Structure formats: structure tokens, C-alpha cells
Fold this protein.
Amino acid sequence: MTRPSISPVTPVLTKRWLSPNSWTLRTYEQLEGYTALRKALAGTPDQLVELVKSAGLRGRGGAGFPAGVKWSFMPKEPTKPHYLVINADEGEPGTCKDIPLMMADPHSLIEGCIIASYAMRANHCMIYVRGEALHPIRRLNNAVREAYQAGYLGKDILGSGFDLDIVVHAGAGAYICGEETALLDSLEGKRGQPRLKPPFPAAAGLYACPTTVNNVETIATVPYIVNGGADWFRTMGGEKSPGPKIYSISGHVEKPGQYEAPLGTTLRELLELAGGMKDGIPLKFWTPGGSSTPMFTAEHLDVPLDFEGAAEAGSMLGTTAVMVFNETVSVPWAVMKWTQFYEHESCGKCTPCREGTYWLAQVLERMVEGHGTQEDIDTLLDICDNIFGRSFCALGDGAVSPIVSGIKYFREEFLALCRQNTGGMKNPGEPELV
Ligand code: NAD
Ligand code: SF4
């Protein structure tokens, strides 16, 4: 199948980012802002759901669930309040697309929220932002205030009879609160831990009411679909993964940052945008969508970065957080750092993840300190096998991804580290043998 290259129609989502005062209502309105809302309110909620379905918009938070299908799970006859909750808890290592979007163009998210709420018959919308992201929270609050003053929020929006209130809520900086049901618990004032699914949020979400949780980028894409139409949206990306996407590129590249390109763009093409490898030092490994997605190597430069392409090549698209590492980086060291992150962020609800991530970190720390044995590699894989598919939520599966893929592609490097072992088995923190 031929895949599109960097499309001349981009940028879409980032087109206002470099305009002066791009975050203000004035600039937003000058650049077509809130025109999609007028169009959306002139139609019916069900027409909007069908439009988003036919555009093929897939969730931009990592899992890629079709957004229009998710919206269609919301009851059509409200017997309880309906909620739209925006997951702005962007926490996946390497992911930096939602925060820049909220900083540069908060009104695109707000306009998307109003349209999506109308489509799902929701009169309440919460935007749950990472607690550490103080500037985006302030900027969003200012934009929400502007939208109320202009009549885009509140009662009888633009004379349509539709009411909507938006609340910006600051989280407390726990990675697990990016998991949608832990996020809902956190919003309800409880300790953020995942709930059993089903029931999915559309059946019983916030305060046990019908709720849809969508990612920031997903909802910010909606006004463009309303204005451009489904066929236009499908001119970008592949058949099953259409549309533009913001890739966040970090690590050993000349120009790290956010790059918008159609889904299906390859790392080779993204590297061109990002100025190539830093100082010309060759690529060693990279992640297509954050550390929870299995790593790739230089062999995967031409893998189309969409949901199907990444999966066919043995990974996942995830959050399109492309972290690039050159030949100077030790794979076991990088894997250890990621594992320490998961150990720290494990919420502790289920045993495989709570105990397993702790154990994995111990073994990797021992290895990196030069006290590992060759058997430790099998131990790591065995623990990973007992976490994957046996954990309560996706954090457990994600935690093993860097280890399993790191050993798959760089086993020799792990072995070499173990061969250098001079001190025998050692627990981290034990004094050095003299
Ligand atoms: P998931 O596949 O379980 O669910 C995705 C969405 O689809 C959810 O909203 C869920 O409610 C809905 N859904 C799935 N099946 C459904 C069904 N049968 N009926 C109704 N709704 C259904 O994935 P997840 O656990 O929500 O997310 C995992 C992903 O999150 C990972 O792939 C990872 O890439 C990503 N992630 C992102 C970040 C970030 O910072 N953006 C952080 C960590 C992980
Ligand atoms: Fe908590 Fe980890 Fe279990 Fe998820 S997999 S519920 S984060 S302990």
C-alpha cells in the first residue's frame, strides 16, 4: 500500500500557533475561530456524531479508539446529566503535544468541547489538566472566561438553546490519573485508581453518569472536521488512520519540538523536519509513541507511523511521542530509567504491576551497576511475562514494553553488561565490596 508523505495541506492543527497572541479570542476569531461552532449548532447532534464517524477520527490519546463510535455510546435520551471530560493529563514520557496545543491555541480545544458536548447532549464539560502544568491551566482559564463573555459558553449558546459550562480542573501530577477511570475517580475527589471496565464511562462515568473521556488533540481536531468535512479530513493519512497528527520529537535531533504531519509519516520524514540526528551521530533506538510503546531501531526508519503501520512492525502508535536516541546511549540504562518511572507511578492496586515493577527496577539497577548475571535477563523476561496481560490497567503492559523490546533488539548489550560483572549479585544500596 502506498502511503502519503508529508502533506502540503498541513499544518491544520498548528496553523495558528505562530500567529501573534494566538491564544486570544481576538486572534482565534480572526483566523476562522468559532465558525465551526455556528455550523455545528445549525445541525442536529446525531449529524455531528455521523460526521465524526465518517471522518474516521481516532483517539489521539494513545489507544486510537474511533471517536465518533465512542460518542455514539452516549444515551440519546438523557435521564441523567451527561459529561464530556477532556483528558489533558498528558504524562506519557516524551509526550508533549497537548500542553503546547493548550498554550498556543486554547480556543480550538474549547470550540471542540462545545461541539462535542452538543453532539453528546452534555451540558457539563471538565478539562482535567496535569497539576504541574500551571501556565496551560491559567491560559485555559483565561480562554474559558473569554468564551463565556462572548456568548460561546453558558446559557443559550449563540441563541441555539444549548447550554454548556466548562470547568478547568487541576490534577495532582499522578501518571495513573491519565487512565480515564482513575481520572474520573480523581475528579470525584477520590484517590486516582483505575476502575473495572465494563462498565465503560458512557454507561457509568463521572458520578455514575454517562460520560465520554476524550484527549485534548482529539477534541481540538473536531472544529476542522466540521468546517472541512469528512472527505477533506480523509485526504490526509491512511484509510484506517486518517487526518493530521502532532508528533512530539525529543532526544538526539537537531530541532526537537512538535511537528504536525499526516498520520502515516515515517521517522525518516520526521527526522528531515527535525533537522536530522544531532551532530550527525547515528540513530540507535527510538520510541514511536512514548516509553509504553515497544522501541524501534534504525531498521524501522520507514515504518508508517499510524495505528496499523506501527502495529504491523511490532509496536504501537501510542501518543506519537518520538524519543530519539543516538549510539552514545546505553539501552539497559535507558530501560532502567523508564522502569524506575513505572515503579514510581504504579498505583499499587494490583499485585503484578505493584510488585513486578519494583522487582524489575531492582534487577535492572543491579545490572546497570555492573552486578548482574546472565540469568537476570531471563528473570526480567519472566517477570515481564507475568505482568503483561495480567495487570489491571494498561500501565502494567506499558511498563514491560521497553524491557521486552530492548532485550529483543539489544540482547547482546545486556549480556555484555552482565559479562562485565565483577562484584557478584548485589542489591542496590549495598556498600561496594572492597
Ligand atoms: P483502551 O483501548 O482500553 O480504551 C480506549 C478508549 O476506548 C477508552 O476511552 C475506552 O473507554 C474506550 N473503549 C474501549 N473499548 C470499549 C468498549 N468495548 N466499549 C466502550 N468504550 C470502549 O485504552 P486505554 O487504557 O484507555 O489507553 C491506553 C493507551 O493510553 C495506551 O495505548 C497509551 O498509548 C496511552 N497513554 C497515553 C498517555 C498520555 O499521556 N496521553 C499516558 C499513558 C498511556
Ligand atoms: Fe495500578 Fe499498575 Fe495495576 Fe494499573 S496495572 S491498576 S497502575 S498497579
Remarks:
- DSSP finds 16 helices and nine strands in the chain.
- The chain has a mean pLDDT of 94.
